[in-house]
TrEMBL record:
Phylogenetic classification of the source organism: Bacteria, Pseudomonadati, Pseudomonadota, Gammaproteobacteria, Pseudomonadales
Name the record gives this protein: Asparagine synthase-related protein
Pfam families in UniProt: Asn_synthase
Positions of the Asparagine synthetase domain: 151-480
Species of origin: Metapseudomonas resinovorans
Classification via InterPro entries: Asn_synthase, Rossmann-like_a/b/a_fold
Highest taxon listed in the record's lineage: Bacteria
Length: 499
């Protein structure tokens, strides 16, 4: 069996394994550039790949009958012969992603905090690395995490004015000189987000941190740039690719050519559960169950009987209108059998998968403090009943920060929204995006109802309702497929020229 490893360090190989595996390591001279947050151990009968919970990027493995390719870069393991996986696409469209899924046949992803074992058959099995609970004060924990990362660094904080980014900004101001900090807030002139801008400006001013406002360019949305490394699975961040490149370049210019540490608050709402599925309230049994249901109803402005029904029966089946009916498997049966603990773990897994997607080169120093393993362990030490009351969510984090830095900074309910920017972008790029989808993989393979897609597209583009989630998923999928094929084609052309 031929084994090719790109830009990753083989940490262990048994003497007997050297005879059984035909191992080839590429870029061995660039040892300093190799990942130290993953381990690859080669045994007689299997290979284990551990992507540590402290990792920053997912790893890809392509498995065929006679070879295995492993790399942190998707385009190093796929080629023009790699086909789209119909089954993975259907799981994606039904919101049933499996651990290790990519949209390509025979290609798997080892996400952050995942251990994969590849046998000689070959087959691959995945295991999530457990994150231990760690008791401690959330604000103190966050302070230690951020302090270790930003010391003597220029720092950009992506600042929405919400709880997560405010917690990061406030903590940064307490551990490093404010002259090294820049808070950057993006906004849409179409969203009427003046309350968010006022709040973020007020907080930055109170902390004496330089604060810049960047207006979203709607024409830059749904544009994937050349500097964007492509993931093996669609992510929401792809829609922001070109705009984020603009932000990253802006921050580098601001710091006179120095690439700053980028702090992003993504994941705080996942680990401390900003949005709680009613079904998860089952875990409150024995912890003032009926009182917590009443508090949940007050917090979310919903009816007691409606909430109780969802606790018993589970949530309503997902509303899929574009995917053809014969392909709608739904997630309800599996969802109903999932425990509240597993649901919480899945929410955290979703956040880890999102930050594990490949980054742009300007984001080499990006860091997500709220998804640090010590922060996740801290959040998991609180049971669901402790996370909310009738007036607030994420109580442990909010209370801890308020005690340390002052309650006036953490009582905001607003958070930046860009719904109208996406609606405007859909209107501007109507021809391009509708052609992309109606001529794309899903339509060509008759997986979606193109008329339903066009109708949903128009409704979203005109701002009649909120952006349709199913519509956005299909657009992201087709963007990823088309850009991946395009880059493979360019690579093939370059290889042909050089030969």
């Amino acid at each position: 069996m031929r084994l090719e490893i790109y830009n990753l360090r083989t940490t262990y190989i048994t003497p007997a394994a050297q005879e059984k595996w035909s191992l080839i390591e590429f870029n061995k001279t660039a040892e300093k550039n190799k990942s130290t947050e993953s381990t690859i151990a080669i045994h007689n009968d299997h290979i284990s790949i551990e992507n540590k919970i402290t990792g920053t990027s997912e790893i890809y493995a392509r498995i065929s009958k006679d070879s295995i390719k492993i790399s942190p870069h998707l385009l190093e393991v796929i080629d023009s012969n790699t086909r789209v996986s119909r089954q993975a696409i259907l799981r994606y469209l039904n919101n049933r992603k499996a651990l290790g899924d990519t949209i390509w046949e025979g290609v798997f992803t080892i996400g952050i905090g995942v251990l994969a074992k590849i046998s000689k058959e070959p087959r691959i099995h995945f295991h999530e690395i457990p994150i231990p609970k760690t008791n401690g004060d959330p604000a103190d924990r966050l302070t230690n995490i951020i302090s270790a990362r930003v010391k003597n660094q220029k720092v950009l904080i992506r600042f929405s004015g919400g709880l997560d980014s405010t917690s990061i900004l406030t903590t940064c101001a307490s551990v490093t000189e404010t002259k090294n900090l820049l808070a950057l807030t993006w906004f849409s002139k179409f969203d009427g987000a003046s309350a968010d801008l006022t709040n973020s400006t007020k907080i930055a001013k109170a902390l004496n941190i330089e604060h810049h406002l960047i207006e979203i360019d709607e024409e830059s949305l749904f544009q994937i740039t050349a500097t964007q490394s492509l993931p093996g699975y669609p992510t929401p961040a792809l829609a922001f690719s070109k705009f984020l490149e603009t932000l990253n370049d802006y921050s580098i210019r601001h710091f006179n050519g120095i690439t700053p540490v980028i702090l992003d608050g993504h994941g705080g709402d996942h680990i401390f559960l900003e949005y709680i599925d009613p079904f998860m309230l089952r875990s409150c049994v024995g912890r003032g169950f009926f009182r917590k249901i009443k508090e949940y109803c007050q917090l979310n402005a919903t009816e007691f009987l409606k909430t109780t029904s969802k606790i018993i029966k589970g949530r309503d089946p997902e509303n899929l209108n574009i995917l053809h009916k014969r392909y709608r498997t739904g997630s309800w049966p599996r969802y109903f059998m999932t425990s509240p603990r597993s649901m919480r773990k899945n929410i955290i897994r979703e956040a880890l998968d999102e930050i594990g997607a490949p980054k742009m080169h300007q984001e080499s120093k990006i860091f997500y403090p709220l998804l640090h393993p010590l922060m996740i362990g801290c959040a998991l030490s609180y049971n669901l009943a402790e996370l909310f009351n009738a007036t607030n969510s994420r109580i442990p984090l909010r209370s801890s920060l308020s005690k340390k830095f002052g309650a006036e900074l953490f009582n905001q309910a607003c958070k930046g929204a860009v719904t109208s920017s996406f609606q405007k972008s859909l209107a501007i790029q109507r021809k391009h995006l509708t052609n992309l989808v109606t001529n794309g993989y899903c339509a060509s393979n008759n997986l979606i109802d193109t008329e339903a897609f066009k109708e949903t597209y128009e409704t979203s583009a005109r701002g009649i309702n909120d952006i349709n989630y199913e519509l956005m998923k299909i657009i992201m999928l087709e963007l990823l497929i088309s850009h991946t094929h395009r880059r493979i084609g360019r690579r093939h052309e370059n290889e042909t020229i050089h030969t």
